[in-house]
Specification:
Elements lengths: L4 E5 L13 E4 H4 L4 H12 L7 E6 L5 H14 L4 E9 L2 H10 L4 E5 L11 E8 L7 H11 L4 E5 L10 E5 L2 E6 L1 H12 L2 H9 L4 E4 L6 H11 L7 E2 L20 H9 L5 E5 L6 E5 L2 E3 L1 H10 L13 E5 L5 H9 L2 E5 L4 H8 L5 E4 L3 E4 L7 H14 L5 H12 L1 E12 L1 H14 L7 E2 L2 E2 L2 E4 L2 E2 L6 E2 L4 E5 L3 E7 L7 E11 L9 H11 L1
Parallel strand pairs: 3-4, 3-5, 4-9, 10-11, 10-12, 15-16, 15-17
Antiparallel strand pairs: 1-7, 2-6, 5-6, 8-9, 12-13, 13-14, 17-18, 19-27, 20-21, 22-25, 23-24, 25-26, 26-27
Helix pairs in contact: 2-3, 2-5, 4-6, 6-8, 7-13, 10-11
The structure holds 1-O-phosphono-alpha-D-glucopyranose and zinc ion (ZN).
The site of 1-O-phosphono-alpha-D-glucopyranose (G1P) has 14 residues, from loops.
């Protein structure tokens, strides 16, 4: 079938600069005529090599996902893409999309998601572009795409009816092949190569009480394939496992606020041995054990400390990385075990070069993101399986036992993040600026019994491509004992958000099980 290519005249939008993770705006913004098209065409115009190539397209299933996918398919056909791999119903989790890009050696991919932000006609929408290898576009490319979006005058589409994506199989759109796949199988196959499924199956069969909450977002079908079909758990371990376009009206951010019911059941009422949840697009995770929640910073440190229990890392890891605001719990493990610890700016894309180079195998962020070198995005279900693999390797030990053992060995980094939302850009800048002005004078000054050892604005030089990222957050360190970090969020869709991160290390045995608030309040007062 030959389909005519149409050039459509357009005018630029001024606001297509991507944030920490792609372009995120209100649905109403994305629904404006030409808005999505301008962005997609700017990618095609900026990043050479689409003609004759493979592209991956999918999204978290939120409202507008289906419409946006058809638009992208029609534009890809006009751009001369040879083959598009797309999930059934247009649905792909962020980590599954990264995996498909790698598996099909695709030239890149579009993932439609605004992560955990509310969905629906009044909610948010988003698009991320990933490059070959499965990682999000680097800043040099997103800057070029932004520049292009400000001068664009035409985009191209083909004239053809929408494609049916309800079943796996191959169709044609013009001369382009559309390969519709059940990505849960591909994804579960990959997981089987990383974890000891026999041990996890035995754990689940041993009376271990477990639940997974997909929060009505993308991970439900992936969780069913993994936990029920392949690991033998009953369907009842799955909660909210049907993806809904409005996420059931909820806010699929797996943390103690938005997954409060699950936390209540496991942490307060101590009703299950282990529970976990994932977010809108499946890249975040929350880990709960009977009577406690594991903070993401500590989850990262524990997974790295016990990497050898996973078949993929039988011989240990060369290195691990954390984003700057993530607590230094990981560094304590690296120092004792002798692997390298890297510190990168906020956002998963900064891990990708290190992962590609083999310098790190495990990485994570305080914002409920954990992952490894199996894909180039954080991966919620990977983290859940990593914990199950760890629990299976330590028969009879609970999550609480594992945490206490960890703190005894490495100390405990008490940690908290405070978000100040709904600020004006000026307000946020004024606060940042007043601390920025004081940084140079802080070292040597004492506050209560803490003395500032270093204070700076974090900047990062990528050791692989030598690119430079400046203005990545203000940090005030009190040696290893404590740290205060302040930065501006890059994912909001309105106003400005400031994030304040507080961290205190306690090593004495009687200080390992204190309430976090009690430990951090003095530091909060200093901050
Ligand atoms: C937030 C998190 C960051 C994460 C990003 C995308 O970005 O803090 O760690 O990579 O979401 O999930 P922020 O809003 O802080 O810029
Ligand atoms: Zn997400």
């Amino acid at each position: 079938m030959h389909a005519a290519v149409r050039s459509i005249t357009t005018t630029p939008f001024e606001d297509q600069q991507v944030g920490t993770a792609g372009l995120r705006k209100r649905v109403q913004v994305f629904k404006q005529p030409h808005y999505l098209e301008n962005f997609v065409q700017s990618v095609f115009d900026t990043h050479p090599g689409f003609e004759g190539s493979t592209l991956v397209v999918g999204g978290d299933g939120r409202y507008h996902n289906d419409v946006a996918i058809q638009t992208i398919l029609s534009m890809a056909a006009a751009a001369g893409v040879q083959r598009v791999v797309v999930g059934v119903d247009g649905i792909l989790s962020t980590p599954a999309a990264s995996h498909l890009i790698r598996k099909h050696d695709a030239h890149g991919g579009f993932v439609l998601s605004a992560s955990h932000n509310p969905a629906g006609p009044e909610g948010d929408f988003g698009i991320k572009f990933s490059v070959r290898g499965g990682g999000q576009a680097p800043s040099s490319l997103t800057d070029a795409i932004y520049a292009r979006s400000r001068t664009i005058t035409t985009y191209r589409q083909i004239d053809a009816p929408p494609i049916d994506l309800s079943q796996p199989g191959e169709t044609r759109l013009g001369s382009m092949i559309v390969l519709c796949v059940d990505s849960t199988r591909d994804y579960a196959d990959l997981m089987e190569t990383r974890f000891d499924f026999d041990a996890i199956r035995a754990l689940l069969a041993s009376g271990f009480e477990f639940a997974f909450d997909a929060m009505h977002a993308v991970t439900g079908p992936y969780a069913r394939e993994l936990f029920v079909n392949r690991l033998g758990a009953p369907e009842s371990v799955l909660r909210n496992a049907t993806p809904l376009p409005d996420f059931g009206g909820g806010h699929p951010d797996p943390n103690l606020v938005y997954a409060a019911d699950l936390a209540e059941e496991v942490v307060t009422r101590q009703g299950l041995d282990f529970a976990a949840a994932s977010d809108g697009d499946g890249d975040r995770n929350m880990i709960l054990g009977r009577g406690l929640s594991v903070s993401p910073c500590e989850s990262l440190a524990v997974i790295a400390a016990n990497a050898r229990c996973m078949p993929a890392y039988r011989n240990g890891i060369r290195g691990a990385a954390r984003s700057m605001p993530t607590s230094r719990a990981l560094d304590a493990v690296a120092a004792q075990q002798g692997f390298a610890a890297h510190e990168t700016p906020t956002g998963w894309k900064f891990f990708c070069n290190l992962l590609d180079a083999g310098d790190i195998q495990i990485c994570g962020e305080e914002s409920f993101g954990t992952g490894s070198d199996h894909v180039r995005e954080k991966d919620g279900l990977w983290a859940v399986l990593a914990w199950m693999n760890l629990l299976a390797s330590r028969p009879g030990q609970s999550v609480a036992d594992i945490m206490l053992d960890h703190w005894r060995t490495y100390g405990r980094h008490y940690y908290e993040r405070h978000d100040y939302e709904g600020l004006s850009a000026e307000q946020a800048e004024r606060v940042m600026d007043s601390l920025r002005q004081r940084l140079a004078a802080l070292p040597g000054q004492s506050f209560d019994d803490l003395t500032v050892s270093a204070a700076d604005e974090f900047a990062y030089s990528d050791p692989i491509d030598n690119s430079h990222a400046q203005g990545q957050g203000l940090r005030v360190c009190f040696g290893d004992a404590a740290r205060i970090v302040l930065r501006k969020s890059g994912t909001g869709t309105s106003g400005a958000t400031l994030r304040l991160y507080l961290e205190c290390l306690r090593q004495d045995p009687w200080e390992l099980r204190l309430p976090t608030q009690e430990v951090l309040t003095p530091l909060a007062v200093i901050a």
